Amino acid sequence: MTQVPMGAVPKKGEEKLKIRKRSNQSIWKQMKKNYAAYLFLLPKLVLFTLFVAIPVLWAFVLSFQEYKIFGSEFAGLQNYITVFQSAAFMAALKNTLLFTIVTVPFGVITALIGASMIFALGKVSQSFFRSAFYLPTVTSMVIIAMVWRWMYNYDFGLFNYILGWFGVDPINWLGQSSTALWALIIMQCLIPFGVGIIMYLASMGSISNALYEAAKIDGAGSLKQWWHITVPLLKPTTLYLVLLSTIGSFQVFTQIIMMTGGGPGNATETLVHLIYKTGFRDFEFGLAAAQSVVLFVIILIFSVIQFRVLRHDE
Amino acid sequence: MKNQSKRVNKLIIYVLLTIFAVVSLLPLYWVFSTSLQLSSYQSEDMERPVSYVDSNPPKLYPMGIPLYFEHWGEAREADKAGNAEEEAYHREMMDHIVDNTFSSFVSLFQKHDVGKWFFNSVYISVVVTVGILLIDSMAGYVLAKKKFPGRNLIFWIIISTMMIPGQVTLVPLFIMVGNLNLMDTHWALILPDLSMVFGVFLMRQFMYSIPDELLEASRMDGASEWRTYWTIVLPLAKPGLAALGIFTFMNVWNSFLWPIIVLNSAELYTLPVGLKTLQDANLASFKLLMSGAAVAAIPMIIVFILFQRYFVKGLTLGGVKE
Predict the structure, then answer these.
(1) How many domains does chain A have?
(2) Contact with chain A for residue B256, Cβ under 8 A
(3) d(CA B136, CA B140)
(4) Which chain B residues are Cβ-neighbours of A62 within 8 angstroms?
(5) ipTM score for this prediction
């Protein structure tokens, strides 16, 4: 993986740029000389400005407004106050947090273990299992949710059928508040984290064999080698995967709308599903904008914390 | 002794991975199995047709397969015994089984708009993918290889929005799309998709490794910027383009939240949106739903199998953070 160009910071180019700046050439002249570069950037810049930059800024503005078709009114913090006073939002926050706290570590750890097992195999088996675990990731969540809805069906679902073998009474998995969220969490855990497995495999391939040889001479068994060499060296990948799946997990939506609609009650309400309901069922644009800003801030805080925690004890 | 324990270890790994793989692939298997399940099978000795969809216990494979061969065998025996009537019956049953197995696919395309949804999904995904490849490679190229005032500023502004979850822009985009009179059109999907920034980042990372000497040489030969980009940069960036193209295609094909917000007319739906309305309508049998799911899943599975190595490349390229 180290062969991959990772020049996030263009050191060389920056230096050259600085040297040029020091020369007497004016910025205007430089811009004129490089007009082609601006032309190349133009399509993306126009699209980006119209459909990303303006909407992002507008979302912040909207969150302080009471939206009306003919002239919105400034509402101060009212939307944010409403957000934090609403029971549905607090439920959504709690559910999303629980969902994330269980599924993210589970997904990353199983991906690490799975990838470690796959890595020990021959080439053909490696590519077979890699595909088997990645295939659900390329399949639309809409489809996976439809199947799982059937698996959780009270009358003829797979789970109640299996429970029947052991003489356990059928469970109304998605229909009662005590089990609905956990049903969704279990489902998430059983969908393999395909991205994680592929990235771990790629990173494992770049660990030098010499390290393992040295450990072998010292008499370390394979489990010890794994724990003391593989796992620590994979830390950057782990950090990235935890961040990636946390961000994804905070945005859980498709399963909710396809399987429970947030119910029963608010039992499976999540942040994005609530934003969807507030904005596009109730058409409370200001409120929905405030909710989405809160979502953004939460994701930002989590990313910063995880980055610090996982980076610190290196 | 040591070799034997190694072999045992390998066996345990294979067993565990196989179990995981079965769990992982079960939902997809169930889509295909149910889509081909018999839903109204009736033989001579039955009073009314039986459905093996939603049966308890669940049927783990399409029942048409064993039944078909059963009738086939009996038809052959009847033929040997010279019993023409019996043979004709079994031949008829074989047709009945085949018809019933594929019935939901036929009705999907005849009674529902699935053909149209499929076409919409294909053409939107292709348009966005081609557009992104062109626009993002142009942007990525100059951001990686040109020095001009404002380059770093533009790059960091674009990259910093990658941190912002897409849901933040939902409401403003909805209002904008309404004001632009694009509501319930495919433009409402295509334009925001073309504006995604991930590709710029990926392309810039990729083009960074193209040697400057090559570009310099092209310039010496008097080639225009566009010619350099088109004949030198793009061919060298092929693996990166392939990875970006596949991910864009997959994201657009599976995109769901935004399409269900802006599309209202059934003839404009993409496959995921159509599948949701099928499920919501409650009219569709589970067999029909799963057939629709199969239609939506098959293209992605084919793309994945054909371009597997680019998936790996795209993940490791876009993912690495310094």
Answers:
(1) 2
(2) yes
(3) 6
(4) 171-172
(5) 0.85
